[in-house]
Amino acid sequence: MDYPNLIGEAGRAHLRGKPFSDPNRSTLLIAMGGIIGALPPPPAEVLDCGVGGGWTSRFLARAGYRVLGIDVSSKMIEMAEEDRLAE
């Protein structure tokens, strides 16, 4: 699936800015706090299923985890990887 092209540039910009570009950012950040609270302490390994734009993978990596992200869309993996390299 070529999801990045289906959502257009505005959709891609939204994904690149998540969680801060999302109107539900407080809920997303609270949820990530709950996830991190349930994980073993870093440097544990984490599998991020449905990586999408990659913000959860980057968030977990910045928290010290070793992250492997997977997605059904190879285009989303490419987009997430491009954004990671751009940081």
Walk me through the structure.
With 87 residues, the chain is mainly α. It has one domain (3-86): Rossmann fold (3-Layer(aba) Sandwich). The protein contains four helices and two strands, in the order H-H-E-H-E-H. Helix 3 links the parallel strand 1 (45-49) and strand 2. The longest helix has 15 residues, at 3-17. It starts with a helix and ends with a helix.
Mean pLDDT: 90
Please give the largest β-sheet: 2 strands, parallel
- The fraction of residues in strands falls at 5-15%
Distance between the termini: 25 Å
Tell me the structural class: mainly alpha
Helix content: 55-70%
Task: Outline the secondary-structure elements.
Blueprint: H1 3-17, H2 25-38, E1 45-49, H3 55-62, E2 66-70, H4 74-86
Parallel strand pairs: 1-2
Keywords for this entry:
87 residues, mainly alpha, Rossmann fold, 2 strands
What can be said about this structure in brief?
The protein is mainly α and 87 residues long. It has helices at 3-17, 25-38, 55-62, 74-86; strands at 45-49, 66-70. It has one domain: Rossmann fold (3-Layer(aba) Sandwich), CATH 3.40.50.
